[in-house]
What does this fold into?
Amino acid sequence: MMSALPDLINGHLKEIERIVNNDQPVSTPKVFRSGIDLGTADIVLIVIDEAGRPLAAFLEWAEVVRDGVVLDYWGAVEIVKRLVQRAEQKLHIKIDSAVTSYPPGTDPRTSKNVLIAAGLQVEAVVDEPSSVVHLLEIEEGAVVDIGGGTTGISIVQKKEIVYTADEATGGRHMTLTLAGNRKISYEQAEKLKRNGPADEIRAVIAPVFQKMSAIVLGHIKDKNVKQLYFSGGTCCFPGADRVFKEELEGLEIIMPYHPLYLTPLAIASYGKG
Ligand SMILES: Nc1ncnc2c1ncn2[C@@H]1O[C@H](COP(=O)(O)OP(=O)(O)OP(=O)(O)O)[C@@H](O)[C@H]1O
Ligand SMILES: [Mg+2]
It folds into this structure.
């Protein structure tokens, strides 16, 4: 079975898609909150208003983080500073603090340190898939966040997060598989993955989808999970929902409108009253 997220959340994701990397100034909000997702493929800053609506969204593709380890610490700090500056100019505000995140099982201080070095106070740190649990107010089920480097999972029973995990398989591994198959560079394969003929590419990267599905099944085993809420840029691949539906038979698959933006939105929203 395939389901959709509430219209409100999908609406926010559509709005992020519309405004992402748009520097055009808009009116200054009275109250706002910021979240920074330090991912292995990209760094995303989202600013939301009191009602949780996105006001600004800035994204830079950068492989400065890998598996919860910041490979290029100062690179990450510079990007965060740049994203913050763009949001400050767009909204005519001063951003002093933000929420940030970390992959389950890694050291949350890594992300904290990057924010502090960028001159920000850290309001909270939340693990990535669990931020989505909070945003969607999930009572039963699991969030599966498939990013560039990792697949993160957070399992909820009776409104409580009972289990989190993160494994090093993500979109990057699809790109590597495609590069090997076509004998092209990583960069060329990344472009091809996003813009090439989806049916042909799906056949090549299917083993990676299967591995991700096996990871999910391994983690939810014996935990009575019936619903899987997906997030993460890898789910943007055309037909990813159908592949997961086949591989994860019997489970309800819930795909957001734009999976790349769900976790960053959830991070910005974390701790909002
Ligand atoms: N249209 C698309 N089709 C296929 N893959 C895509 C598409 N758009 C983005 N991706 C992939 O999504 C991944 C990035 O997703 P995301 O931003 O969720 O990762 P991240 O948060 O940086 O990484 P992680 O959570 O693993 O640290 C990249 O591997 C990228 O290739
Ligand atoms: Mg991520």
Observations:
- The mean pLDDT is 95.
- Residues 37, 39-42, 103, 128, 147-150, 170-172, 175, 190, 193-194, 232-234, 236-237, 260 surround adenosine-5'-triphosphate (ligand 1) (CB under 6 Å).
- The domain at 2-126 is CATH 3.30.420.40 (Nucleotidyltransferase; domain 5).
- The chain has nine helices and 13 strands.
